[in-house]
């Protein structure tokens, strides 16, 4: 059984994490399949929007804590620190770091469709996508402190950018469950949708993004990320550089032409 299910509807590709019996928690093998699926989507010109979701009742419970890549070894039958302990830093370097960077560099908009609980690295996978839509029954848990770790998969970068210092620290230190509605109210996610409307809402958003000028949307993501750390003049210079390039591209001509012709534009670039 694939650990990542890949489906496509028009120009929208959906990747569903597929270890429902363990709430789609990450094993090294699932990381490998997800990165390969992201690379394949990035290379396929028919894909204009990517959706990441979970199979079954969960989105993703973060790292599989029983995976040999992280599990503490048994000493005299007890789980305990040991020289044999796998190096979790090596795992993070090889898996969550490239995953978080890959999503941020996708050449198409990325929607997280959070169908259920998103915990640990699963929460930060969801929060690191471009637009995060959650079913009302879903939740977000920065579970790391409960196992004496710090947020990873980009959480230390994302949380202070998405919310206030107090809320970021409260979430990360306490590891309490944040409901989908709270996450929306706090501005951490784009939208919380009633469960019955969730699949249709995700599909409508993804199809809408796929019909937009995705090259400009991807440049917008990069420019906002760069702008958050830049001074005003640097951001203005970056805007001029991007508009110079985008203004010579086919999608700009199409957008302006469609405006004056009073018709819907057909964007083709990626
Ligand atoms: O060393 C490192 O970990 C480095 C990497 C760090 C990145 C991280 O993501 S660290 C954070 C890891 N994740 C967690 O700590 C979350 C652990 N899970 C939970 O706290 C709970 O499962 C949830 C709050 C997410 C959901 O609770 P609930 O009551 O809805 O479900 P459940 O009964 O706890 O879980 C259902 C099954 O999934 C259960 O298996 P079973 O008993 O039916 O056979 C449970 O063991 C399994 N499961 C859930 N999360 C994980 C998991 N199995 C392995 N690893 C998990 N993370």
UniProtKB/TrEMBL annotation:
Source taxon at top rank: Bacteria
SUPFAM superfamilies named among the record's database cross-references: ClpP/crotonase (SSF52096)
Xref: CDD domains: crotonase-like
InterPro entries: ClpP/crotonase-like_dom_sf, Enoyl-CoA_hyd/isom_CS, Enoyl-CoA_hydra/iso, Enoyl-CoA_hydra_C
Record family assignment: Belongs to the enoyl-CoA hydratase/isomerase family.
PANTHER family: EG:BACN32G11.4 PROTEIN (PTHR43459:SF1), ENOYL-COA HYDRATASE (PTHR43459)
Protein's name according to its UniProt entry: Enoyl-CoA hydratase-related protein
Organism: Leptothrix discophora
């Amino acid at each position: 059984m694939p650990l990542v299910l890949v489906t496509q509807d028009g120009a929208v590709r959906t990747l569903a994490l597929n270890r429902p019996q363990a709430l789609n928690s990450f094993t090294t093998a699932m990381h490998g399949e997800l990165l390969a699926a992201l690379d394949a989507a990035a290379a396929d010109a028919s894909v204009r929007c990517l959706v990441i979701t979970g199979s079954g009742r969960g989105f993703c419970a973060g790292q599989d804590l029983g995976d040999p890549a992280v599990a503490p070894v048994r000493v005299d039958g007890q789980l305990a620190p040991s020289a044999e302990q796998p190096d979790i830093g090596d795992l993070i370097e090889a898996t969550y770091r490239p995953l978080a960077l890959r999503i941020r560099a996708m050449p198409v908009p990325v929607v997280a469709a959070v169908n259920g609980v998103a915990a640990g690295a699963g929460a930060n996978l969801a929060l690191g996508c471009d637009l995060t839509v959650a079913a009302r029954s879903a939740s977000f848990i920065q579970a790391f402190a409960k196992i004496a770790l710090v947020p990873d998969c980009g959480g230390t970068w994302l949380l202070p950018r998405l919310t206030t210092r107090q809320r970021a620290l409260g979430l990360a230190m306490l590891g309490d469950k944040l409901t989908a509605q709270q996450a929306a109210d706090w501005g951490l996610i784009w939208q919380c949708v009633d469960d019955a409307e969730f699949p249709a809402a995700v599909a409508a958003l993804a199809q809408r993004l796929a019909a937009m000028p995705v090259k400009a949307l991807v440049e917008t993501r990069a420019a906002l990320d760069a702008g958050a750390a830049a001074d005003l003049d640097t951001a203005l210079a970056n805007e001029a550089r991007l508009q110079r390039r985008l203004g010579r591209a086919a999608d700009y001509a199409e957008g302006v032409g469609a405006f004056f012709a009073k018709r819907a534009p057909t964007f083709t670039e990626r």
